[in-house]
Amino acid sequence: MEPLKGVVTGPRTGRMRDRRGRGKRGKMSLPGPLSPRGVPIDASRRDEFDRIVRDASAHMRRKNGERLQHIEIAVEEAPLLPEDWDEEVPLSTIVPGPMTRLVLFRMPMTQRGSHPDEISEWVWATLLERCAEICVCQPEELDPRI
Questions:
Q1: H or E stretch including 76?
Q2: What is the pTM of this model?
Q3: Ramachandran region of residue 21, left (φ > 0), alpha (ψ -120 to 50) or beta?
Q4: 52-83: buried (b, 16+ CB within 10 Å) or exposed (e) per residue?
Q5: Which domains does the chain have, with CATH numbers?
Q6: Are the C-beta atoms of residues 130 and 119 closer than 8 Å to each other?
Q7: Cβ atoms within 10 Å, residue 127
Q8: pLDDT tens-digit readout, 83-141
Q9: Confidence class of residue 5 from pLDDT cuts 50, 70 and 90?
Q10: How would you classify residue 97: left for phi > 0, otherwise alpha for psi between -120 and 50, otherwise beta?
Q11: What is d(CA 23, CA 19) in angstroms, rounded to the nearest whole number?
Q12: Burial of residue 139 (number of CB atoms within 10 Å: 0-12, 13-18, 19+)
C-alpha cells in the first residue's frame, strides 16, 4: 500500500461523530438570518427534568389549585448531606414557612430511573406524596388521575 503523500482525497464519507458529548454541530445549530442566536438542538437533561416537574405540578394544580396555592415547588441538583449519612439519599425535602417550599432533587431521581417515563413516575409519586403530607390528607385525594 502506497502512502498518500499529503494528497487530499475529498470529503469524508460517513456521518460526523460526537466525540466529546457536546451534541450535534453544524448548519442546524449555527446562527442564521431567521435565528440570529442559533437554534437549540436538544434540551439538556436538566431542562428535561425541569419540564417534567413543571408539567406534573401544573397537572396537579389544575384539580387542586386552592389546596396547593401555598406550596412552592423548586428543583435542586442534589441534597447537602452530612459526611456520616448512611441512609438512602432523599428525593425531596419540605422547607416550612409562610410559603411552604417543596424541593425535588434531580440527581437522586434520575439515577433511580433510566428512562424519561420512569423519571416522570418518580417525580409524580414524590410530588403527590409530599403535597399530601403538606396538606395533611391522603395522596388519593390530590391525584387528578383518579
A1: strand 71-76
A2: 0.70
A3: left
A4: bbeebbeebbeebeebbeebebebeeeeeeee
A5: 45-79+89-142 (3.30.2010.20)
A6: no
A7: 24
A8: 998 999 999 999 998 899 999 999 999 998 888 889 999 999 999 999 999 999 998 88
A9: low
A10: left
A11: 9
A12: middle
If you search the block for the grid coordinates 413516575, which residue do you land on?
121
Confirm if 67 and 142 have CB atoms less than 8 A apart.
yes
Residue pLDDT, tens place only, 51-61: 999 999 999 98
Check if the beta carbon of residue 142 is closer than 8 Å to that of residue 132: yes
pLDDT digits (tens, 9 = 90+) for 11-31: 555 555 666 766 655 555 666
Q: Within a 13 Å sphere around the CA of 77, how many CA atoms are in the beta-carbon half?
A: 2
